[in-house]
Write a structure and sequence with these properties.
With about 140 residues, the protein is mainly α. It is built from seven helices and no strands. The radius of gyration is 14 Å and the shape is globular. Bound molecules: protoporphyrin IX containing ZN (ZNH). This is Hemoglobin subunit alpha-D.
Length: about 140
């Protein structure tokens, strides 16, 4: 459950991310594929080498989806409903992987934002990514 303070922090944080969405998304994915190589199994059709344009393109989509979610903090389920269908029925990504991407995204934020990624921001953003992951996983059965 996101508190009013969490929501405020998440919106503030995303203002700092907004100009770098593609770059941060790309770095988070590159990091995920190297740190947790098991995540590569979902992308057999991608070029997963460092510098891959496909990773960059996908990073842009994932970051844009997160940006949209930030605009809908009061009804994430509705905002992410199509993506939730896609992940549950088509992609069938093991939800454990959502935590791995979240972890990588947070390392990217810490590396780029430094002091601006304060413990309060970290706490709020971690709750946000967990909430997004919960929605993406809610239709699995
Ligand atoms: Zn996912 C896809 C988001 C996680 C795997 N995704 C996708 C997209 C998006 C997303 C936006 C696109 C769609 C369209 O196109 O329509 N994701 C997302 C988010 C998250 C995620 C937001 C969290 C946060 N995913 C994930 C993970 C994984 C995945 C963790 C594994 C590891 N996805 C995926 C895949 C796909 C996707 C495989 C498909 C790709 C292609 O293109 O093919």
């Amino acid at each position: 459950m996101l508190t009013a303070d969490d929501k405020k922090h998440i919106v503030q944080l995303w203002e700092k991310v907004a100009g770098h969405q593609e770059e941060f998304g790309n770095e988070a994915l590159q990091r995920m594929f190297i740190t947790y190589p098991q995540t590569k199994t979902y992308f057999p059709h991608f070029d997963l080498h460092p510098g891959s344009e496909q990773i960059r393109g996908h990073g842009k989509k994932v970051a844009a989806a997160l940006g949209n979610a930030v605009k809908s903090l009061d009804n994430l389920s509705q905002a992410l409903s199509e993506l939730s269908n896609l992940h549950a029925y088509n992609l069938r990504v093991d939800p454990a992987n959502f935590k791995l991407l979240a972890q990588c995204f947070q390392v990217v934020l810490a590396a780029h934002l430094g002091k601006d990624y304060s413990p309060e921001m970290h706490a709020a953003f971690d709750k946000f990514l967990s909430a997004v992951a919960a929605v993406l996983a809610e239709k699995y059965r």
